[in-house]
Amino acid sequence: MNFIKKCPLFFLLLTTGILFSLIGIGGMGNVYAGQEYDPLKAPVLSVMFTAMKDGIYPWQIFSGEHTQTMVMGDSSQRMPENDMASLPEEEKEDSGQDNVSASIQIDEAAKGESGHNSKKDGIFSKALGDAMSGVEEGAKKAEEEVDKLERLVPLRESTHEEYINHISADIYGDAGIIRAAEYEFGNVDESYFDDAMFIGDSRTVGLRDYTDLSKHADFFCETSLTIYQALEEDFDGVGTIRDAIAKKNYGKIYIMVGINELGRGTTENFMEEYTKTIDTLRELVPEAKIFIQGIMRVAKEKDSKDAIFNNSNINARNNAIATLADNRNIFYIDVNEAVCDEEGNLNSEYTFDQIHLLGAYNSLWKEFLLSHGVDDKDKTEK
């Protein structure tokens, strides 16, 4: 007794230590069964404190409330959901709030088990909803990437020597041409062009003026037009392409430019602007089919004498723009198949200046277009 009077604090600590140790030992078989405990690293009384941090209190040893804490152990020890439903509401709020693992929570939420309170159901539903939303968004982005897919990358860059000598480097090869040729086009009649727009330079002016396609399609063309100003050009009497698209629902857009750009910049510069224009048209008219027309070549006499306006440069740039075709929404067609000779040059009998078609031979271009239609069912809906 004298010892107790002299050292009351020590006695209190000793007594509580023994008591807490007994609680720890007593609870190891029930409420503390799920607690991690290493007797070599910590005294047994520490179990009580770590359990309290997890929301498990000493009096639960005697109240029979330990059952719900067993979820931290083997999953086979989990309390049946019908027992969970019989617990008081305040205990439902606490049960597993901090202890149940995320995988168990999601599993039970997916099953829609009645034992969970509405608050948890709301949390789980939101989590699952967010997850599904993320999957859908990911799928949408993946689909958008597939749209641009298949857009081939250059094999190399243009050299400085090619740039200063106005040589259009063939930096793509014929992979785009080969892929575009895999699509099987069909025959159509003139009414097919009733919802068509044609964009082009002086060569397209000839198609407009020397065929009857202008009775069906709208033409946005003028001499010296280039890809660099095509979308912003104010065409006499019809306005800009953007204005026209805002007023009419076009189902097809044909574009042929590129001859006037040969002496400007590199293949990369041209391709960058061409790509930007095609992507903008897709945004403005997402349901339209876009037909990229290969640049018409020049006659042999022009090809052999001109360092800039020659078929080597034209072919290099055609190889580039052909890679934009996906054979679903964007198609590459090459009228050179209809107007060139066996050597691949513009047939000299069809031209008056080695570059443009004679009026009467624009009908060859029209016939080529009539044999390269795309059925509506072949277009991928977006």
Describe what this molecule looks like in 3D.
The chain has 382 residues and is α/β, with parallel strands linked by helices. The protein is 43% helix and 6% strand. The chain contains 17 helices and 5 strands. It has helices at residues 2-6, 8-27, 46-53, 60-63, 81-85, 89-94, 102-111, 118-147, 160-164, 175-180, 202-210, 241-247, 267-284, 300-305, 311-322, 336-339, 362-370; strands at 196-200, 218-221, 252-256, 289-293, 330-333. The protein has a 5-stranded parallel beta sheet, with helices on both faces. α7 crosses α8 and α13 (267-284) crosses α15 (311-322). The longest helix is centred in the middle third of the chain and has 30 residues, at 118-147. The protein starts with a helix and ends in a 12-residue tail after the last helix. 29% of the residues are buried. Mean pLDDT is 80; it is low at 64-116.
Provide the descriptors you would attach to this structure in a database record.
382 residues, alpha/beta, five-stranded parallel sheet, 17 helices, 5 strands, elongated
